[in-house]
């Protein structure tokens, strides 16, 4: 009596070989899935994409990603996150950022961006500074400043910090929402890391804060001390 294996069973076997670092055997199992006409899942692709990105074979990972799309499988936030991380690690930031916009266009909501960073950390694929910055920037551009702040917190925990321009955008958005304490927290973190706004940035922030005297006093305190 033969043993019938489904896609989930094959995924476990593929992951096992990848954890052992044996790409050839993992690929043989994947080829067997295709030969048996068993439909691979997104997980089948993701574990291979993640492995190739860690090994620096981003072109191979991109090829698998494209193959998944061609076969009608919709990449999830983890698929995009793994490939974005791989591209960022090679300094291909523009291509990684383009992929993030494609993620949103394909229906992966921006709220999934924060979740994908968590998924990457769980998978021991720690996002680098560029990946975090792209996600923060994406939230700021869509007006989801509080979500951007969550990612900024994750950045700080991992030892990274965002670009000053992105921080300026976030602060202005938080001010508009009346999130005074959050603004002060970001300013304090900037001070700790010796990050400074130029005069134009401070001018924009102070003008935006003028409708709230408490904010003005706190900002003046930051400027003076």
Helix-strand blueprint:
Blueprint: H1 7-19, H2 23-35, H3 42-54, H4 58-70, H5 77-89, H6 93-105, H7 111-122, H8 129-141, H9 145-157, H10 164-176, H11 180-192, H12 199-209, H13 213-224
Helix pairs in contact: 1-2, 1-3, 3-4, 3-5, 4-5, 5-6, 5-7, 6-8, 8-9, 8-10, 9-10, 10-11, 10-12, 11-13
Explain this structure to me?
The chain is mostly helical. The chain has two domains: 7-125, Tetratricopeptide repeat domain (Serine Threonine Protein Phosphatase 5, Tetratricopeptide repeat, Alpha Horseshoe), CATH 1.25.40.10; 127-224. The chain is built from 13 helices and no strands. It has helices at residues 7-19, 23-35, 42-54, 58-70, 77-89, 93-105, 111-122, 129-141, 145-157, 164-176, 180-192, 199-209, 213-224. α5 packs antiparallel against α6 and α5 (77-89) packs across α7. The mean pLDDT is 77. Belongs to the PPR family. P subfamily. Keywords: Repeat. One of its GO terms (biological process) is mRNA processing.
Roughly what percent helix? over 70%
CATH architecture grouping of the largest domain = Alpha Horseshoe
**Radius of gyration in whole Å, from Cα?**
22 Å
CATH fold-level label of the largest domain: Serine Threonine Protein Phosphatase 5, Tetratricopeptide repeat
CATH class of the largest domain reads Mainly Alpha
**Principal-axes shape call:** elongated
| Strand percentage | under 5%
Largest sheet: none
Q: Can you give the mean pLDDT? A: 77
Count of domain modules: 2
Please identify the oligomeric state: single chain
Give the strand tally. Answer: 0
Spell the H/E element sequence.
HHHHHHHHHHHHH
Count every helix, treating DSSP H or I runs of 4 or more residues as helices. 13
* Helix vs. strand class: mainly alpha
Low-confidence stretches: none
Superfamily (CATH H level) name of the largest domain: Tetratricopeptide repeat domain
The end-to-end span amounts to 78 Å
